[in-house]
């Protein structure tokens, strides 16, 4: 298993980043909040989780070890694969997810694209004893450049399954909250709340 990757950020894409490690470019699938903290040319250290399938080896990168642990834990619930686990962490910070599960907050969990009422109830039932309560730790990510956040939030929404037109509307709706140093993860969560109310 590859526990973490440290190297120079060669490229930051819409759903992944490439880190150069010992002359090899490793592609890490990351949620928009993690991608927002990466800058091409800078050195990054990302905890990772490798998902092995019959036809692929996929490396997922995270802002911190807590996010990685939650990503791996939620996949122990039936019906939750890596894509849904990543969507959960794109919409909810690890502590928000723990809080939703521990307080049996179905409404919060159904804000994640791909989780319906029954799915949320099943996740709560299966994870309540394993996920634990909130830890009070929030990852500190670097702020995104002024307008780059719009594209990152838009692509994050599209990557989570929302139509491009709906994503455009949600980005416009949260634009007033962006401020001088936009927090992409918070803006993405706000955009998802806007879409779930629509």
What report would you give on this structure?
GO terms for molecular function: DNA helicase activity; hydrolase activity. With 198 residues, the chain is α+β, with helices and mostly antiparallel strands. The protein has three domains: 4-61, OB fold (Dihydrolipoamide Acetyltransferase, E2P); 65-131, 5' to 3' exonuclease, C-terminal subdomain (DNA polymerase, domain 1); 148-197, Orthogonal Bundle (Helicase, Ruva Protein, domain 3). Helices cover 45% and strands 19% of the residues. It is built from nine helices and five strands, in the order E-E-E-H-E-E-H-H-H-H-H-H-H-H. It has helices at 32-36, 65-74, 82-91, 94-102, 106-109, 117-131, 148-159, 164-174, 184-197, and strands spanning 4-12, 16-21, 24-29, 43-53, 56-61. Strands 3-2-1-4-5 form a five-stranded antiparallel beta sheet. Strand 2 (16-21) and strand 3 (24-29) form a beta hairpin. Helix 7 (148-159) packs across helix 9. The longest helix is centred in the middle third of the chain and has 15 residues, at 117-131. The model is unreliable at 138-146 (pLDDT under 50).
